[in-house]
Amino acid sequence: QWQSGLFTHLLRLPLSYFERRKLGDIQSRFGSLDILRTTFTTSVVGAIMDGIMLIGVFIMMTLYGGHLTWIVLGFTAVYIGLRLATYRYYRQLSEESLIKEARAGSYFMESLYGITTVKTQGMSERRGNHWLNLKVDSINTGIRLTKMNLMFGGVNTFIMACDQIAILWIGAGLVIDNAMTLGMFVAFSAYREQFSDRAASIIEFLLQLRIMSLHNERISDIALNEQENKKPDVPYEPQMQAAGLETRNLAYSYDSQSAPIFRDINLSVAPGESVAITGPSGSGKTTLMKVLCGLFEPSDGKVFIDNIDIRQLGVNNYHKMIACVMQDDKLFSGSIRENICGFTENPDEQLMIACAQASYIHDVIISMPMGYETLIGELGEGLSGGQKQRIFIARALYRRPRILFMDEATSALDKESESYVNQAIRQLPITRIIIAHRESTIESADRIIFLGGKHNE
């Protein structure tokens, strides 16, 4: 339940959160929840039992040994002092181990996601060696941490041995002087051993609780980040009915210290209109698209759909009305049917086929041995770049959007396929906002907006 809640919260964080972090680091932070869960369930139960036993054993030690109990407490205090003195270094090693393991994990996943580039650029050996160096660095830190734990175990054994020698020396004198019976001394020694073992376990648990602050900080990076601007869900029946879009004095910068990517964007798109946004690379077209899609929060200004501020509407409700085909769209593990239908439980077969036909991919799919049930992986193996893009478009159309955003969505298509897709989409009662460099795509729009420098022209 903890994991489900945190994962749901993670998915609702703004896109900017993920763009500024590595996947391995996010996965490592999420994994810290397992350590917290184990500590606060299994370990807590054991610590409570140890605590009850410790109190009982301490009482029996006091009854049988009297002042000898202070010797045991003194040696226990020495061990506690040693652990506290080395805590800062131990915590530093623990944090370093987590960070290095996350770094190696990120590099591993990055290499798999870019496996085509790795192979075509002849980078397999270099990537493999670099990952090995990261992994060795992580393992070495883990070894240092293990050595420190072994050292603590050895020190604890040494302190217990010194404790036992001192008790034997002083206790033997008390027995000889008839200040303590032999039976009482034997009983005290047995209880002392139990006390030392239980005390060591509780000390270890309490120090682990302090280490939990490290994992808590890492989880807090997820849990304490604000979710997207979410409002109560408004009942909405998807329908292809064109909506208008307007921006007023729109600006965006990555943070308060950075120069704005763009500013003073005043854009008005009528319902059913097709607008192409063009401009030189680096002018902020994709960033503008992400702001219009509600993926980025604007630094200044507002975005309206049918004269309703999307902040007041809520990103969750706004996303029900739109669909996006971005440059970095991904397929998910499953069938082509599931990917087009967004993994809905009761897909609309007729709508799915209509969307595939509009995207000029239906004939390709039915020519496959398993048709729409053809399984694809997260990397889209077996599909060309153009086929993937057409599935992305079909997936977007299946949502029956009122506004369709397309960022270089047909860049991998040949002219014939692109012309067919553009013509099919133009016939739909939806508003289109397109980012493109290809002239044929730009010319298919009703209006062209040039984005240059910091403002629109």
Brief sketch in words of this structure:
Helix content is 60%, strand content 12%. The chain contains 17 helices and 12 strands.
Separation of the first and last Cα atoms: 51 Å
Order of helices and strands: HHHHHHHHEEEHEEHHEEHHHEHEHEHEE
Low-confidence region ranges: 453-457
Write down how many β-strands occur, each being a DSSP E stretch of 2 or more residues: 12
Strands side by side in the biggest sheet: 6-9-10-3-11-12
Q: How many helices in DSSP terms?
A: 17
Fold-level CATH name of the largest domain: ABC transporter transmembrane region fold
Q: What would CATH call the architecture of the largest domain? A: Up-down Bundle
Output the radius of gyration.
32 Å
Give the C-level CATH assignment of the largest domain: Mainly Alpha
**Mass-distribution shape:** elongated
What is the helical fraction, as a range of percent?
A: 55-70%
Strand content is 5-15%
The tally of domains stands at 2
Could you state the CATH homologous superfamily of the largest domain?
ABC transporter type 1, transmembrane domain
Largest sheet: 6 strands, mixed
Class by SSE composition: alpha/beta
Provide the residue-averaged pLDDT.
87
Keywords: ATP-binding, Cell membrane, Membrane, Nucleotide-binding, Transmembrane, Transmembrane helix, Transport
Main location: membrane
Protein name: Peptidase domain-containing ABC transporter
GO cellular component, one term: plasma membrane
